[in-house]
Write a structure and sequence with these properties.
By secondary structure, the chain is an alpha/beta fold. The chain has helices at about 15-25, 40-45, 55-65, 80-85, 85-105, 140-160, 185-200, 215-230, 250-255, 270-275, 285-290, 300-315, and strands at about 5-10, 30-35, 50, 70-75, 110-115, 115-120, 165, 170, 170-175, 200-205, 210-215, 240, 245, 265. The chain contains 12 helices and 14 strands. β2 (about 30-35), α2 (about 40-45) and β3 (about 50) form a beta-alpha-beta unit. The structure holds 2-amino-3-ketobutyric acid. 2-amino-3-ketobutyric acid binds near residues 79, 80, 118, 170 and 172.
């Protein structure tokens, strides 16, 4: 049986587009998409799909053993805002799912793991501008703590057990297909939907809150390129800083307004403001650019154009 790739959390914002890309690259039959439910019917009905709870070691193990899965992308997680509401659930899901997959690699059931980290590993004591790869990480959210600890475990499993695990510290990801859920950077997706649907948006962050962001197409290319790089090129086994664009709510609003002059915005910061304030405004990703030739393609203006064009069609 040819070796397969398993995506856990395939119906989520990144999982959805990662599944499509991997199906294109490796053939539909070689990619097993999985999630805890069938919330994305297009994805569920267009290739192999299994219901898998990322917290269930036996379910992941059975799927890998029965299908000759050799690579796992673990995309299931509770994000920063949801994690603050359900701290123990976030810890439970984010940590145990990672241990399950790392242990399958340690036990040689699978060969390779992708696990997403995040800019949430940083905290208020981290240098905010052009945040270095190696710097102070004192996260103040549960999500950030799980990502920071997860990075330590990834590096540990690589160094002690030879596990081929690879990771990226994703910034906020913007896409027009699946919605993000429970993050602090979600406003940068919601704003495009509301612009098209209602012509106005109430932002839960203040107008000058600058955060690192990236268009989905770039995030998917980065993920696939990192996973396809030769092992000795992947020098960082915790997680790579990754950057594309940084902007504030005011700047994204102005970018949309160029296409929709009637669009209006109001600001009503909530508990997510404190999370955003603890994160960097821009990221130094030189290690990724040097080690595996990462480069981004989308800036704010090109992203706005593609987002509005696609959402206009979606809501037409
Ligand atoms: C979040 O806002 O929680 C995520 C992230 C930056 O990891 N999008």
């Amino acid at each position: 049986m040819s070796s397969k790739i398993l995506i856990i959390g395939a119906c989520g914002q990144i999982g959805t587009e990662l599944t499509t890309k991997l199906r294109e690259l490796h053939g539909v039959d070689n990619i097993i998409a999985s999630d805890i439910n069938t919330r994305n019917l297009d994805l569920v009905n267009s290739g192999p799909f299994e219901i898998i709870d990322a917290k269930n070691y036996n379910a992941i193990n059975d799927c890998c053993q029965q299908n000759n899965v050799k690579t796992v992308y673990l995309m299931a997680a509770l994000l920063s805002a949801t994690g603050e509401k359900y701290p123990m659930e976030a810890w439970d899901l984010n940590m145990n799912s990672l241990f399950h997959v790392l242990n399958l690699a340690k036990d040689k059931v699978i060969d390779k793991v992708f696990w997403p980290s995040s800019i949430a590993v940083f905290g208020p004591t981290t240098p905010r501008d052009n945040t270095p790869q190696h710097t102070i990480c004192e996260p103040t959210t549960v999500y950030g703590i799980t990502k920071q600890v997860g990075e330590r475990w990834c590096e540990y499993y690589h160094d002690k057990y030879g596990v081929d695990v690879r990771s990226i510290r994703y910034p906020g990801i913007i896409s027009h297909k699946a919605m993000p859920g429970g993050g602090t950077t979600d406003y940068a997706v919601e704003i495009y939907h509301e612009a098209i649907k209602k012509g106005k948006y109430e932002c839960f962050l203040s107008e000058n809150t600058e955060l690192p962001m990236m268009f989905m197409e770039d995030a998917i290319i980065a993920t696939v390129d990192l996973m396809h790089s030769p092992s000795d090129a992947v020098k960082i086994r915790s997680a790579y800083n990754l950057a594309a664009i940084s902007f504030t709510p005011k700047q994204i609003f102005e970018s949309i307004k160029k296409h929709m002059p009637e669009f209006t915005i109001t600001y009503n910061p909530d508990f997510r403001q404190a999370i955003a304030d603890s994160w960097p405004s821009s990221i130094d990703d030189n290690s990724a650019r040097t080690d595996w030739n990462w480069k981004h393609n989308f800036d704010l203006e090109t992203m706005t154009k593609v987002m509005l064009e696609n959402l206009e069609k979606k809501y037409a």
